[in-house]
Design brief:
80 residues; mainly alpha; 66% helix
Length: 80
């Protein structure tokens, strides 16, 4: 997956990064990996994964919005 924010193919999710996040969280809580005595650490890891996903998605969205606005304004300038 070269670009995590491109549409995921053959998946239940729209973005490739969403699939990576969900797979990571599911692996954390898998009974063969999860250790009950460390529940607080697994919970913290889950929250960190979600926080980083949220931040990266927000930055990606802002970048695309800014690029679209820039493209739209340069197109407007050409037609003036």
């Amino acid at each position: 997956m070269e670009n995590f924010f491109e549409k995921s193919t053959g998946s239940n999710y729209n973005l490739a990064c969403t699939e990576v996040v969900m797979t990571s969280i599911q692996k954390c809580w898998d009974p063969s990996i999860f250790i009950a005595a460390l529940t607080h650490r697994f919970w913290k890891m889950t929250l960190q994964i979600l926080a980083r996903y949220s931040k990266a998605a927000g930055v990606s969205i802002l970048t695309k919005v800014n690029a679209n606005e820039s493209s739209a304004s340069s197109t407007e300038m050409r037609y003036r």
